[in-house]
Amino acid sequence: MNRFMRNGRSLILAYDQGLEHGPTDFNDRNVDPAYVIDIANRGGFDAFVCQKGIAENYHDLLDIPLLLKLNGKTQIYGKEPLARQNCSVTKAERLGAAAVGYTIYLGSQFEPEMAAEFGKIEEEAHAAGLAVVLWIYPRGEYVKNDTTREMVAYSARAALELGADAAKIKYTGDRESFAWAVKSAGCIPVYMAGGKKTKNEDEFLHQAAECVAAGATGLAVGRNVWQSDDPIAFSKRLNSVVIDGTKAVPSEKA
Q1: pLDDT average, residue stretch 1-24
Q2: Most exposed of 23, 45, 106, 195 (fewest Cβ within 10 Å)?
């Protein structure tokens, strides 16, 4: 994962929401992949996440490393989510990916299938010299709260145990409990999942600062950046907090 690092930290811009959520996250600007790729290029990000279709059709526009997502699902599902592989490691290589990503829903009745599929991907990717990032979220009928200290730490530990090079996990809500999740991941980098857009940008920057203070390597963020009214300006503030470690200063709009 060193290829994505600056000062031991990194910021990843995620744009795989189109498959996961449909077009509900988009407006007239950010529905265009070229618009979001421009943010990735100019906003100080260390990698860009997308599914294979966007990588194939917009590859020439991307100036930063590609982290290609190899599985996914639509939002039309029941209580037990299953995201299966839809792109090979070989194709990721052909598209010039520096790393691949995969999601496992910890606690789903389909968890064993996803874990087995990830195991094969991890071996193939490492044999090809690609890093592997595991999106790992507690979800399913028996998961009552997916952001508790126990659930998020379990996710982080599972990523380590399964052979991931980095884990993308949810924020627990406070620095102390998130620090336990980071510690549970052992030596692998931990990224906070950006999630839904917060009520204001200062709130998100505070979360980011708390996660970095808890030991996180950085963030894999999407909507909080490309849904911003001024995504480049916000990206600069995010870089200052995550990469430079400066205090999250409230904006003049607050």
Answers
A1: 92
A2: 23
